[in-house]
Amino acid sequence: MRKIFFLILGLALVFSACKQTAEGYYNTGTSKLDNCDYKGAIEEYSKTIALDPNFENAYLKRGLAKVELGFYAPAIVDYNSALEINPKNIAAYFKRGIIKHKLEEYKWAIEDYDKALEIDPEIEEVFCNRGLAKAMLQNYSGAIADYNRALELNPNDAKAMVNRGLTKIDMGNIEEGCLDLQKGRELGNAVAYEAIKMYCK
């Protein structure tokens, strides 16, 4: 009985050590990510995952590092893995949606933004991104609705303000669009300056 006790205790210590090591690799990876050493970060997060395949944030951070290197498809795989571990991971849906957006897969990006908003319907950045994706599909009324919601959540969201202005201009509503662009300029958005020169005489 005593032998069994020590065996169990020994196994517990091994598992504990592995967990600490996984955490250590994760922290090192995050440090490298913060310092723009994306390849080094990927290596550290991969070591983390090798020791703890359910380390949800390691998949997220490794996906982010891959995106910075332009490895979009492998990043999506990482976000998929994070969602297998936690189907309610808002960041994974949002970040995966951003990649699909970059790849001009706007319909699929919107689906990921929708899922993120089902979990938390008060994230202004998701509304803003979904609005842009809808605008790219020429769903202008849907885009305006999303920008309106983003601005309800944060009236100082310059990106949403400018995007709403540009969408109104695309719809032929130049006057209202230029008013939004002027507000965006007041909020310090650089795009607004150029857009005003181009559209607002």
Write the layout of secondary structure elements.
Layout: H1 2-34, H2 38-51, H3 56-68, H4 72-85, H5 90-102, H6 106-119, H7 124-136, H8 140-153, H9 158-170, H10 174-186, H11 190-199
Helix pairs in contact: 1-2, 1-3, 2-3, 3-4, 4-5, 5-6, 6-7, 7-8, 7-9, 8-9, 9-10, 10-11
User: Which percent range describes the beta-strand content?
Assistant: under 5%
Number of helices: 11
CATH class of the largest domain: Mainly Alpha
Structural class: mainly alpha
Contiguous low-pLDDT stretches (5 residues minimum) are 1-19
CATH topology of the largest domain: Serine Threonine Protein Phosphatase 5, Tetratricopeptide repeat
Helix content percent band: over 70%
Distance between the amino and carboxyl termini: 88 Å
Radius of gyration in whole Å, from Cα? 22 Å
- The CATH architecture classification of the largest domain is Alpha Horseshoe
The shape is: elongated
- The whole-number mean of residue pLDDT values reads 92
Summarize this structure as a short list of keywords or feature phrases.
disordered N terminus, 201 residues, mainly alpha, Serine Threonine Protein Phosphatase 5, Tetratricopeptide repeat, elongated, 2 domains, 11 helices, 0% strand, 82% helix
